[in-house]
Amino acid sequence: MVTKNRSPYRAVLLILVLICGMVAPAMAAEPIRIGALVSATGPASFLGDPELKTLEMYVERINASGGVIGRPLRLFHYDDGGNANEARNFANRLLRSDRVDLIIGGSTTGTTMAAVPLVERAGRPMISMAGALVITEPVRPWIFKTPQSDRMAAERVLADMQSRGITGIGLISGTDGFGRSGREQTLAVAADFGIQVLADQTYGPQDTDMTAQLTRIRNTPGVQAVFNFGFGQGPAIVTRNYAHLGIELPFYQSHGVASDRFLDLAGSAAEGVRLPASALLVPDALPDDDPQKQVVQDYKAAYEARWNLSVSTFGGYAYDALMLAVAAIEAAGTTEPEAVRSALEQIQGHVGVTGIFNMSPDDHNGLAPESFRLLEVRDGQWVLVD
Asked: Which pTM does this prediction carry?
């Protein structure tokens, strides 16, 4: 009788053991370890803050949907404050202590390049969110990036100037890594568009007034337009100084200011400014058959609903980096570094927020200049020009 009385309990116990046996492997699946270097504070916080928010939000969303190749994502992130030395130290920690499978970052060219040698020695894929051409040219096997290059930005601006019959310009740029590289690329390709750089001025990251530089540009014979290549508060100061001086020549900025924060900082002085930017700033202006329209609308809606903040193109760079990483891991079916690296090189037709990515062994950015949309500030809003 005792044996018969216990049999139902034994059956229940057996069922519980079987259920636990099925659940345990899923619960115990080793997470995919994603490292992130972001400049969430400091002078480049307008880049790093939306990037980190984007990564945190989409790691949560991906995990809620079942993860990647049956494994959850785990995000290890560090704030380098825009400091290259800090970025180097944190990259070392990600690779050695956190043992990440892949790194997303840095937010700036300087922090990215500080981490590159460590990443290459460790043999781990890295997807940068910074724009300078030097990050991916020459091609480094382990290094990729999501923003368009500074050369593409220069070409987009110069092509628009050419269409307006402009043949002589003044160039003003920041002396940080982004501004310096942008200046070099503009000087390198200007002649291809029949344009001469007649005045060439620079400003430092801590400068608070660029009136002297702009005055020299204004007084240079033959200047028909002005192009500023920089990021952070510098371009907003240049814009306000430009308006204060009453310069009426066409004024262009680079993609380094493609966010609503620039509009806030520059105010009414930004009226009429043109710049190349991603479709993210004008998603509703895109035609319905544009393959990016749904992607940028969905990202914008999700980000603004979660954080109650305006979206920026910089957060879009992080979105694209994470989704490219996920696509590569899914294609490889593993997190083995060489397999993921190879899969990244083979990504074709990947529709992102920044553009449509077509990677190859010879192109670790995968974007065309046409991925830039030309925008103009009108009545304090971004308007699609082309």
From this structure: 0.86
